[in-house]
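Ticket #4471: structure output looks truncated?

Reporter: J.K.
Steps to reproduce: submitted the chain below (273 residues) through the standard prediction queue, then opened the result file.
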Amino acid sequence: MKILVPVKRVPDPTQKAKIKDGHIDLTGASWIVNTFDEYAVETALRLSENGEAASRIAGSEIVVVSIGPDDAAKEIRTTLAMGADRAIHVVANDSEIDSLVVVKVLAAIIAAEKPDLVVMGKQAVDGDANQVGQMLAGKLGWPQATFAASIELKDKSLVVGREVDGGVEYKRVPTPAVVTVDLRIVAPKAVQNGTTPASFAYSGEGARLPSLKGIMAAKKKPLDVKKLADYGASPAPVIKELSVTLPPPRPPGQIVADIPTLVKKLAEEAKVL
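Returned output as attached by the reporter:
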């Protein structure tokens, strides 16, 4: 199985954001692989390996794609160190792209690579738009399963579990397909590929960390550098950031003596009842 995994580099969300001149100031920001995309790489690895034997399934291939500036090569190498086989880096500044540009590039890459499956994070933690996966599936005319909390590979189809208000919803989608993953996809038994014994459980609750051997191997793995024009796209986003402002400060809280007083204040002052 050939799996394509789009990834994005994002500012570390644990760092406090600063706003300067109406825009987020990224001076001195630390950059990481988007967390949900990292989970997507882990999902692809689990689908293409025998976890108990710690070996890859013959004929499987994982291709990572990232659209970003030259510096994004560092985060791409991180995914190669995790175990991806090769990568494509489409060089572009963040200000030159939006979801439409990303989808156009990915669709062109998919047409050339012909993967059996596209696995990606449900959203990027910087913009939180949650739209590229759905737009990509629509453009390709492929089936999609979003917010995947579990995946089971059966023949040439996937059974995807999605957490909903009433419990878990299961959807069967044929391949090729687009799947976006949620955080529970990295649970110990969330991914079943029919090769790894069902009794086997991955350790931890997150994506694997690159080993020293993986880091050394990543330096030799293919990383093709491309431009937007190579895929028929141009740096002409239709969505532009005009300004960023902090929300107004909240008024201080109040301590009330009893429930009737609380209800009265909620009704008369807060006007939420």
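Triage note (M.O.): checked the attachment and the full token line is present. The mean pLDDT is 94.
Status: closed, working as intended.
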